[in-house]
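Supplementary notes for students who missed Thursday's class. We covered one full example, reproduced here. Read the sequence, then the structure, then the short commentary at the end.
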Amino acid sequence: MKHTADIMGIPFPKITMDQSVQILSEVVEKANKELFHVVTGNPEIVMSCQHDKQLRSIVDEAGLVTADGIGIVMVSRLRGGDLPERVTGCDLLYKLLETGNRKRWSFYFLGADELTSQRCAEVIRSDYPNLTIAGRHNGYFNEAEEGRIIEEIRSAAPDFLIVALGAPYAERWIYKHKDILNAKIAMGVGGSLDIIAGTVKRAPKAWQKYHVEWLFRLINQPSRWKRQLILPRFAVKALLYRERNV
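Structure (token representation):
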């Protein structure tokens, strides 16, 4: 039995949310010197990988690629891949914070604007008092500040580096600096820090249950309509995709 489902050439492991958390827990417990890069593979990243060789290389070298979105899961099932469930960056982050609170993990948060970054840290300290916030910085920095941020992360040596710089920039940033960050695991999480901070409202549970969070976001953020156009394009291309002969 094949343990991955290929979506437009990207292999997604057939694992659940709980299995993903278990994998990352084991990484934290090991003394690996190499950073473990988690890529939350949404339709936008999969589509970009079709023409962006550098991004495709980043995804191919990642330690774990998760099925970020119901579109990925549905396409896999229609093509016989049968991914068990979606493992979104936001949901995975919440699970990691819960587990980290029990296991006393450390986190460094990079991204969002300064007020959101501050508020996010406050919420996490309140809701998950047993984990360690090893540091944080907003996502607006110049080259000189970037060097100081990297040095701060290196000194903190967090279990998790959470990067909310937007996809695929977060993935590129992690990959560019992976040899010097001195974190055990790094993961791009899109706008998840805004959701934790409460500056962006997440879809109610019923919308999540029926997999229409994208519609909720579109209603609340109409400016996203151009970005949302990639979803039907992805569905058509992914369903018609044929492996290239090498």
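Commentary. Residues 31-240 form one domain. The radius of gyration is 18 Å. If anything here is unclear, bring it to office hours.
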